[in-house]
Structures are given as C-alpha cells and as structure tokens.
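Customer escalation, tier 2.

The customer says the design service returned an amino acid string that "doesn't look like it belongs to this structure." They asked us to rerun it and document both sides in this ticket. The original structure tokens are below, unchanged.
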C-alpha cells in the first residue's frame, strides 16, 4: 500500500522547510532542533510573543506529543502564564497549521508539530496500560487513501493513525 496523505498548503511551509528536524530517540520520536519560532509565527500572521514562542518551543523540543497540562507546567516554570492563555495559544497554533491536536487516549488531547516536508506525518502508538503516546517512524504503517477518495464525496484534509496496545515497559512489569 502507498501513503497518500495530502496535507493542505500551509502559509509557514516555506519557513518550516528551511529548518532541520532530526530523529532524536530510538523509538522514532521526532523533535525540532533549529526552528525559528518567531519567523514561523510571523509568516502565519501571528505576533511572536514570548508566550507563543515558549509554547512552540515546548512542543518542538519534545520527542512525543505533549498534553496542554504538561505544556502549561513546563512554560510556567520559567514565566508567569495563565492556563487559559496556554489553551488559547494552542487553539491559535492549531488553527494556523503550526501545531496538530491529536487524540491521546480516552478523551485526552495532546499536541505536536504539524507535518511538513521535514517532519513527515507519522503514526502514533498508545499504551493502554500506562497511557504513554509514542511517535512511530514515518512509513512504518502504510495507509492507502485511494479507495476512500474514490468513494467519499468530501475532501479529506488529514488523517490521524494511532495504534493501541501495551508498550514494552508495561509488558516487562506484567
């Protein structure tokens, strides 16, 4: 099967393409190493406020998607910020296509950098025991949307793939 996920053209794509992304952990977690967050925000039509930049840094420097609570906790260690401000920033970043909101298991939501040419769309693994969400290698799971595109009258704007199971750490404990 071939991967046929079409991503909408993003206003910040040309900026994102100039930045380097590296796989930084053995599970395939992808984290941004050298993003110019001020430039990304500016190209997206947002002022690069310290709070917006710090939220993007926290998301970009994590090797797996992060909860809003974890983002708030991390940002509030170094700057005074209200929890509601973090949620508003996250909503804005999702709306502008810089960040994606993912299902983290149950009814929880987590946030990661939106896919682009250097940060490809990839599936996630959710552990049903401990609740951890891990990034899997891009291409580790093939999704063929051709059949859906032929039979579905609407426009597919994104695909979220999550594999559920028990992680190796929880298997060791059992």
């Amino acid at each position: 099967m071939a991967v046929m996920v079409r991503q909408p053209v993003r206003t910040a794509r040309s900026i994102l393409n100039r930045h380097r992304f590296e796989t930084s952990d053995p599970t395939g977690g992808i984290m941004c190493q050298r993003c110019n967050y001020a430039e990304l925000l500016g190209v997206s039509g947002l002022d690069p406020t310290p709070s917006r930049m710090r939220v993007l840094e926290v998301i970009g420097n994590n090797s797996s998607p992060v909860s809003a609570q974890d983002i708030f906790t991390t940002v509030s260690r170094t700057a005074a910020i209200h929890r509601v401000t973090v949620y508003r920033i996250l909503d804005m970043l999702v709306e502008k296509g810089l960040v994606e909101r993912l299902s983290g298991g149950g009814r929880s939501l987590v946030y990661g950098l939106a896919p682009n040419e250097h940060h490809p769309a990839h599936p996630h693994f959710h552990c049903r025991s401990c609740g951890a969400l891990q990034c899997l290698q891009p291409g580790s799971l093939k999704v063929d949307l051709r059949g859906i595109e032929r039979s579905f009258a609407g426009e597919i704007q994104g695909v979220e793939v999550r594999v559920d199971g028990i992680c190796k750490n929880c298997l060791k404990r059992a």
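Tier 2 assessment: The sequence is consistent with the input. Residues 1-31 have pLDDT under 50 and may be disordered. The CA atoms of residues 120 and 138 lie 6 Å apart. Sent an explanation to the customer and offered a walkthrough call.
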